[in-house]
UniProtKB/TrEMBL annotation:
Gene coding for it: ung
Organism whose genome encodes this protein: Rhizobium setariae
UniProt keyword Ion transport present: no
Protein name per Swiss-Prot or TrEMBL: Uracil-DNA glycosylase
Catalytic residues of the enzyme: 69 (proton acceptor)
Pfam families: UDG (PF03167)
Top-level taxonomic group: Bacteria
Known function: Excises uracil residues from the DNA which can arise as a result of misincorporation of dUMP residues by DNA polymerase or due to deamination of cytosine.
GO CC annotations on file: cytoplasm
Major location category of this protein: cytoplasm
SMART domains: UDG, UreE_C
């Protein structure tokens, strides 16, 4: 994975050096290369595998939102969980995130699903698995990405500055179960997918709770209002 790691933001690159030099990451690199040589299309493109880390530097993480896999449809994934590229239809889970944000903060839903505005302010939009084969959900699970993203979460957990962890659904809650709740604010709710959003995601008020915590810590709150145009 060294060739891809070179493109990684320096703070993360240094913090995760031991991961990149580990056997499991070499195995993952070989798997991805073999998949590409076999003619399989992988999302997102290689330069965006670590987009979440490039946009949200380690020492600047204020909020962590965990996803599971990248979107596997054409033109959707670009390295941030729940986010899609400009011009792509907003996925159902993100539609529900916007609904909750409107109920919580009075912010009208954006007409796009491009969330880089959040990432640039310190919202780490991290999927557990960072690649997927086109049209084949969960196709790269169990190949090593989960161990790598566990290390990412651990590095945030170790930072001196407190952060907010928004853990939506049982998968995210289990993955970040080790986070120090004495230092960080851990918010839990059901997943925002149409299958579970009405079971407690709606009404969770995670966006206002996150900002209240950040302000109480003397940190700048997140501007959740997305730009009208991207």
């Amino acid at each position: 994975m060294t060739d891809t790691a070179i493109k990684l933001e320096d703070g993360w690159k240094q913090a995760l050096a031991s991961e990149f030099s580990s056997p499991y990451m070499e195995s993952l690199k070989q798997f991805l290369q073999a998949e590409k040589q076999a003619g399989k299309v992988i999302f997102p493109r290689g330069a965006e595998y670590f987009r979440a880390l490039d946009l949200t530097r380690l020492g600047e993480v204020k909020v962590v939102i965990l996803g599971q896999d990248p979107y596997h449809g054409e033109g959707q994934a670009h390295g941030l969980c729940f986010s899609v590229q400009p011009g792509v239809k907003i996925p159902p889970s993100l539609v529900n995130i916007y609904k909750e944000m409107q109920a919580d903060l009075g912010i009208a839903p954006a007409r796009h699903g491009f969330l880089e505005h959040w990432a640039r302010q310190g919202v780490l939009l991290l999927n557990s698995v960072l690649t997927v084969e086109r049209s084949l959900a969960a196709s790269h699970q169990g190949r090593g990405w989960e161990k790598f993203t566990d290390a990412v979460i651990a590095r945030v957990n170790e930072q001196p500055s407190p952060a907010v962890f928004m853990l939506w659904g049982s998968y995210a809650q289990k993955k970040a179960a080790f986070v120090d709740q004495k230092k960080h604010l851990v918010l839990k709710a059901p997943h925002p997918s149409p299958l579970s959003a009405y079971n407690g995601f709606f009404g969770s008020r995670h966006f206002s709770k996150a900002n209240e915590f950040l302000e109480a810590q003397g940190l700048q709150p997140i501007d959740w209002q997305l730009p009208a145009e991207v």
